[in-house]
Specification:
Elements: E1 5-11, E2 16-22, E3 27-32, E4 43-44, E5 50-54, E6 59-63, E7 71-76, E8 81-86, E9 92-97, E10 109-114, E11 119-124, E12 131-135, E13 141-146, E14 151-156, H1 157-161, E15 174-177, E16 185-188, E17 193-198, E18 201-208, E19 211-214, E20 225-226, E21 230-232, E22 237-244, E23 256-263, E24 269-273, E25 282-284, E26 288-293, E27 299-305, E28 310-315, E29 337-339, E30 345-350, E31 355-360, E32 365-371, E33 381-385
Antiparallel strand pairs: 1-2, 1-33, 2-3, 4-5, 5-6, 6-7, 8-9, 9-10, 10-11, 12-13, 13-14, 14-15, 16-17, 17-18, 18-19, 20-22, 21-22, 22-23, 23-24, 25-26, 26-27, 27-28, 29-30, 30-31, 31-32
C-alpha cells in the first residue's frame, strides 16, 4: 500500500493548522491563532518539513509534522507574503511581499532567511506582485520576478543577508527583461534553470557563474496560457494549467482548461483537456497528477495518469460555491488539492464544510472523509508530505 503520509490543512481565515495522518485521519498536531498566507502556500523542506508564513504575526514558520514538536522554528518576516522559495539545500529562504487585501501594489520589502543560523534581513526592492526563486551553489542567487515592467532581477543571497538594518534599498546585480504579465515561477535544481510563465510561454534562464542567460521561450502550444508553474521532481517535467476563453470573470463557467506538461529531458510538450470551469492549482502523486474542477453543473476531481489516461471523480457540492452570474474569486468557497510523490493518496478539501476527502489515485475511490475543527473557508490550503517523498526537490512554495 502507499507510504505513511502527513496532511497539513490550514484555515487561513479562522487561523488554524491541523496535522492528520493519511488515510485514517488521526490528528497528531494542531495550531491555533495562526493565519497562514494562502498565496505564498507551503514550501517543502528536507525530511518531511514545510515552511509557511503567518500573515497576522509576521512570522516564517518551519513545521515538522513527523516530530512531537510541530513548530521547529519561527523567524520574523515582512508581510503580506506573496511568494516563498528556498535554495535546493532547503537552508536559504526568500519571501516577497505583495498586495494582500489592497488594490494597488504598495510593499517593496523582501526578506531573506538562513535557517541554519536563524539570521534574517529585510531589504527594499520594487513594489508589485513579485515571484521569487533561490538558485543554489557556492554563492546562492535570489532571482526576483517583477511585473510591469517585467524582469528577472538577480541578487547575491549573501549580500542581501548582510544588508544593514533599516530595510535599505538594493540594486540587482543584473536584470533580464520579461513581458509585463509574468505570473508563475519554477526552478529545476538539476540544471540550474529558472522558469517564468507569461502570455508568450515559459521563459527559461540558466545560471552561468553569477549571472542568468536567457534561453528560448517554451511555447504553450495553445491559445490559452498558464498562470502557475510546478516542477515534477519524479518525472523531471514542468506542469501548468492553461486557462482559455473570455477573460471576464463572470464568464468563468465557460473557461477552458488544459493540463500542460513539458518534459525537461526530451523537450516535448503534452496537452490534455480537463473540461470547462475553474481549474487552478494541481498536485503530484506517485503516478498521477490531480486537479479539481469547479463548475455549476458539478465539481470533480480529475486524475491524469502517467500513461495520459484520465479518470473523473464526482465531488459533493459546496454550499456557497461559485455560481453563474458571479465571479469565482470573491466571497465564495473553493477547494484545495494535495498529494505526495511518495504515495497514491490525494486530498481534496470541501470549502465551508470543514471536510477533506481522501482518494486512492489508483482507483479513484474515496478511502475516507475527514472532518476538521473549522469550516476551511475558501477551501483552505493543504500539503501532503511523506518523510522522503522528493517534494523538497521543488524549491518553490505551493
Amino acid at each position: 500500500m502507499t507510504a505513511a503520509a502527513a496532511l497539513l490543512v490550514s484555515d487561513h481565515v479562522d487561523g488554524s493548522v491541523s496535522v492528520l495522518t493519511v488515510p485514517d485521519g488521526t490528528v497528531t498536531g494542531r495550531l491555533t491563532g495562526r493565519h497562514l498566507s494562502e498565496h505564498a502556500g507551503f514550501l517543502a523542506l528536507p525530511e518531511g518539513r514545510v515552511a509557511c508564513v503567518d500573515e497576522r504575526r509576521g512570522e516564517l514558520l518551519v513545521l515538522n509534522p513527523f516530530d512531537d514538536e510541530l513548530v521547529e522554528l519561527t523567524v520574523p518576516v515582512a508581510v503580506p507574503a506573496e511568494h516563498l522559495a528556498c535554495d535546493p539545500s532547503g537552508r536559504r529562504l526568500a519571501i516577497t511581499t505583495g498586495l494582500g487585501k489592497n488594490i494597488e501594489p504598495w510593499s517593496d520589502l523582501l526578506t531573506v532567511v538562513d535557517l541554519a543560523t536563524g539570521e534574517a534581513a529585510r531589504v527594499r526592492t520594487r513594489a508589485g506582485e513579485p515571484g521569487v526563486t533561490v538558485l543554489g551553489g557556492g554563492d546562492p542567487l535570489v532571482v526576483v520576478r517583477h511585473r510591469q515592467p517585467g524582469a528577472l532581477a538577480v541578487h547575491r543571497f549573501a549580500d542581501l543577508l548582510a544588508a544593514r538594518p533599516g530595510c535599505p534599498t538594493v540594486t540587482p546585480d543584473m536584470v533580464l527583461p520579461l513581458p509585463d504579465d509574468g505570473h508563475g515561477d519554477a526552478q529545476d535544481p538539476h540544471s540550474g534553470r529558472v522558469f517564468a510563465a507569461t502570455s508568450e510561454g515559459v521563459h527559461p534562464a540558466r545560471r552561468r557563474a553569477d549571472e542568468l542567460a536567457a534561453e528560448a521561450v517554451i511555447p504553450w502550444k495553445s491559445p490559452a496560457r498558464g498562470w502557475y508553474l510546478r516542477l515534477d521532481t519524479h518525472r523531471r517535467a514542468l506542469w501548468s494549467t492553461l486557462r482559455g476563453g473570455h477573460p471576464d470573470p463572470l464568464r468563468w463557467p465557460d473557461w477552458t482548461n488544459q493540463a500542460w506538461r513539458h518534459d525537461l529531458v526530451t523537450g516535448r510538450t503534452h496537452l490534455t483537456d480537463l473540461g470547462p470551469g475553474l481549474v487552478f492549482r494541481l498536485a503530484l502523486a506517485r503516478d498521477h497528477t490531480a486537479f479539481t474542477r469547479i463548475h455549476p453543473d458539478g465539481d470533480e476531481l480529475v486524475l491524469l495518469c502517467a500513461d495520459d489516461t484520465l479518470r473523473r471523480v464526482p465531488l459533493p457540492a459546496m454550499d456557497g460555491a461559485p455560481s453563474r452570474g458571479g465571479t469565482p474569486w470573491e466571497g465564495v468557497q473553493r477547494r484545495a488539492v494535495a498529494a505526495s510523490p511518495g504515495s497514491d493518496w490525494v486530498a481534496v478539501t470541501r470549502g465551508g464544510h470543514g471536510e477533506v476527502h481522501i482518494f486512492d489515485a489508483r482507483t479513484g475511490h474515496e478511502a475516507t472523509r475527514l472532518k476538521t475543527s473549522t469550516p476551511l473557508h475558501h477551501g483552505g490550503h493543504a500539503v501532503l508530505r511523506s518523510w522522503n517523498d522528493s517534494t523538497d526537490g521543488d524549491p518553490v512554495g505551493r
